[in-house]
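Input for the complex:
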Amino acid sequence: MEPTQIALYTLLSPLVSAVVIALFFRRNGTIAATISVASAAVVAAGGLMLAYGGHRFEASMEWFRFYDFGMSLGFKFDDLAAVMIAIVGVVGFCVHLFSLGYMADDEAKARFFGGLSIFMFSMLGIVLADNLFMMFVFWELVGFSSYLLINHYCLKQSAAEASKKAFIVNRVGDFGFLIGILMCYGVYGTVNLSELAMATTGGALVATAIPLLLFCGALGKSAQMPLHIWLPDAMEGPTPVSALIHAATMVAAGIYMLCRIEMLMVADALQVIMWVGTVTALYAALCAVVQSDIKKVLAYSTLSQLGYMVAAFGLGAGQTNSGAMFSVGAAAAMFHLTTHAFFKALLFLGSGSVIHGCHHEQDMFKMGGLLKKMPLTAITMLIGVLAIGGLPFVTAGFFSKDAILHLAQVTNPAVFGILVFTAVLTTFYMVRMWKLTFLGSPRSDSASHAHEGGFMTMQLPLIILAVLSIFGGYTHGALGFVYGHSFDGVWSQIPHPESLVGVVIMSLAILGIGGGLAWVLYPSSDKDGLETQVPGAFAVLTLLKESFDKAYTYYVAKVQDRFAMLLNFIDQILIAGLIVRGLAGFVGLFGLGARALHVGSLHAYVYWFLLGIVMLWGFAGGLF
Amino acid sequence: MSDIIFHVFAFLTIGSSVAVVINHNAVNSALAFLVGLFGVAGLFVLLDSFLLAVLMILVYAGAVVALFLFIIMLLDMKGGERNAFSKPTAIAGLIGAALLAVCSTSLAKGFNLLPAADAASVIPVGATLRNYADQLFTVYLLPVQVVGFLLLIAMLGVIVLSKKFEGLEDVK
Amino acid sequence: MSSIGLFHYLMVATLMFSIGFVGVLIRKNTLVIYMCLELMLVASTIALVAFSRFNGTMDGNVFVFFILTVAAAEVAVGLAIIVALFRRRQTVQVDELNALKN
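Predicted:
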């Protein structure tokens, strides 16, 4: 089978699944689930075949043409796309499998699995896209799927508002993205990625506005500041959704897009990107410290790690080694994206297992003692926590984080300092989460009756992801069996420090300080340890979290709503009332006048005849 | 001599026209019309169009007025009605007078353009039947055919219009 | 020599036309209105014949021919319509034939 055919089938099979579910199996959740999981398996198989089979190709087809402007759909499958498709396939399949168990007693299973299939289709579209317009189309589709899935528990008001918020904030970012694409088209006459690469080689000057506007898309999709507010609220969706969309794949689409457009980057834009990422990482880590909901902790952790990836891109995208297809920054960001996908999905699915076991209890302070009740979940989540903390050599997170920190150290020491502090905070709140959830004694009824989920559906994905979290860090060498040599185009550019000793010491120090502090501060109790012992810090951190939301609400209420009311006035009263109905009424007046002529009296008609004849006479005689 | 005859016939025509308009009884109006047609025929004779004069009597007086009288007798149950002098009448009179005034003044203005007043100096081509036939069957052949067709359609139309339609409710 | 010129004949025609016109506007009986219409038609024939005579052409005369024919046909059809109307509305007074009013 041709590689383009494999790619096409991989792309279309989730779409087919979604359509079939929507049309025929709305009521039958079990069949819908089976179809969706089957399509996820097809996607995983196809993706892995393409990635590991060494097929690298580009193919495109023109969709429509309007004089000079043509829009085409096509695939650009290089090493970068191969990495992404492998992640999307594997993590997607694990999440689908997990959902079978997690959503087993949900009433709207068909809707859920349909939404998951639409999401897979849209994400694959972004991964495989070869031009910016096509990417934008699928970008919007991914936003739509996210909206659909966050709102799965549609009877809850908070879920409805969260999904609206996610979509609208994404839209704001997409507006900048679209303007960037249009500018790109205007300046270069093409939005095809390969053609853009050729147009900008040799250091041709690029306007700073273009990459910054395109970065707006990543701001929205990857939830960087100031458009980060939707991600914590998006936890209203079911946990598999959070795992797939808001941890591993959709939010990573922003990073992927940045790597795709790195040939358009200029130094000033990269500075902005770097600082945005760093600030987001720090802010999110600070907010995560005071969360009590287990999913919110993970959401802020995702925000923080995304900040890492964006900062890595900003740090290193200017440095491209000769003969390489990708820059150092892109490689570092993609590497962290990959390992993050594995361990974050693992953490989310693990938390899903916990939530499912505790009968949908999400407050960490009501859990505890689950190590004995759910050992597999506890061990796999421990692996995840160590991965995100960066335990040297054993976990994947160590290698990717180390690459980013090394890049920061050689490029920008200030950023390096902030990122190290953030790493300490990361370990702190992660260990806090693990300890509160799994150690101590059960603090509520639901915790004391917890149990593991089914093996095939809920525990197997955890095991797969745990293995990948351990071995996903080895990009070459004897232990690099996960990747083989298939992704060398990207992996070869990952920055490595010369001496590993300093790095190891630094990582161990980070782990020790963060983890130790957390261990000490949080005994197993109902109250937040930080709140009781350092109330000032707790209050400040809570305020930090609330401030953004408050600012946006104020802006929306005062500025946005008033503007909307003004537009409503213009539309209803001026346009619809005055112009549309006014014109119709004006014509109606003529009708009324004509109606008055019909008096039914023959003599009146004769008079009108006379008038007509006189006028004709006048015309003929040259009077008028 | 012909002047006097002209004036006689002219007054006859005008007088009977006024009678048509003023008379309350419809039958009286029809008969006044008839008399007026005789006056017109006389005027035609003075204009040397003998054929047309005779045709006037035959067609108009003989057929059209007869038809009118027939329908009047068929339909008009009441004898007549009193036309009170009301506002519409006044306005109509005014408009009629205005029309007359306009026509007369335009005639008077264009008087110089009219051909010579001497009737005798122009050869009366309409005096012979031959000239009519000449024109009708060469220059005006198409109108003759069309008018024939028109008469056919009129006949058909009259037949259709006179039928009684069953099942239609009255508009009251 | 007669001093009756074209002008006199045209005056007769104009006068007859105006009288017929006033008759159409004044009378309430549909049949009488129709008759006044015929009056107007006859007036136009007088004018035509007069012009034709004083110009020395045949066209006016021949045209009167056609007017005669058409007037006959028109009267036939018009009276048929009036009869049908009478059957429907039982009246031929114009001010009672006002079903189209408002």
